[in-house]
Specification:
The chain is an alpha+beta fold and 449 residues long. The chain has 15 helices and 20 strands. β15 (341-342) and β16 (347-348) form a beta hairpin. It is globular, with a radius of gyration of 21 Å.
Length: 449
Amino acid sequence: MFDKILIANRGEIALRVIRAAREMGIASVAVHSTADTDAMHVRMADESVCIGPPPGAESYLSIPAIIAACEVTGAQAIHPGYGFLSENANFVQIVEDHGLKFIGPTAEHIRIMGDKITAKDTMKKLGVPCVPGSDGGVPTLDEARKLGDEIGYPVIIKATAGGGGRGMKVAASADEMERAFLTARSEGKSVFGNDEVYIEKYLTTPRHIEIQVFGDGKGGAVHLGERDCSLQRRHQKVFEEAPGPCITAEERARIGKTCADAIANINYAGAGTIEFLYEDGEFFFIEMNTRLQVEHPVTEAIYGVDLVHEQIRVAEGLPMSFTQDDLVINGHAIEARINAEKLPEFAPRPGTISQFHAPGGLGVRMDSALYDGYKIPPHYDSLIGKLIVHGRDRESALSRLNRALGELIIDGVDTTIPLFHALLQEPDILSGNYSIHWLETWLESNPLE
């Protein structure tokens, strides 16, 4: 058993890992920038180390500083959380080269899944269904036009190193191909340092369905069902639920087994999420995230497992504490992501929290690092909390979310809480009838001023 682990992250996810470690009797080390000296994860950890100034590149993304923090504190393993270095294969290799343990998959698996073309090719070979498209990068506009004609419009051009909605452009017809192709390449080059793009069929009204998988690194793997993450704005998830309101038990079992078998075949270790577009009963692979997801609590709620506990166990070489037969869905869970943003433009609004009150009661969980007087720094992501509710069915979960939102108090900064109050009045949300395009279309006529 590890005696001490370092959390290479900040905010609510750092707190999440600290709590899991404490329950397992493991000491925790928090790292922080000078902007986060008074952050809650620093206060709650057993030890803390300042690793640099506010910019992420000089602190939370500084590999030498994080390795040095392990050396001075005697931490034996590093949990990366999500974001920052969580999917950086070079970081994983350096961690292992220093005799430390990375709580997550191998550098090789992160590399494979980090490049979207390689990931798609790998998944195809493992029997995972994929969106029709190019077999690799598309280097010229002429080839892009030819592929567009073969696949059929609309198509989407994606930067191979892209993520978070950047480097992605849709061409609805042949006339739009040049603009979309050149723009996607330009964004890929400027944001990710790589202008290679690939092309896929663009589905018109799909849902975003992701399958939670977990491997022991020794050829054993399970799936923990799906999450529906279709409510998105600019390709950023806003609202997630499990199980998916449109997925049948038979579909869940089929795609879940396909995903679990795929990661078992490559000896994948730890948590991972295989993401799909889903339309007309078919699943189409888009990417795999080789880390814990922001929305992992909804899966924990319906299956009654602690995914961070399992990550730590597997990193120590221990077996998973459950089998596929143990994983039975209980009820329905929903997560609402709360951001410090000004509506209707969703502009980040850092500031000082004058009052914070988390909702409570049966089936309510609030993952947040806020407290009265906390100053939200302007240097990082605007996510400041996740409100998770669990009910015996979807209707009761929605009612519980409505009640919990009414109890939640975050004063001193603008937040996206009004968005969720409005969404819970919409018939499509209450019925679960929405696609990945629903929210942006709705916002055009409901600006939340």
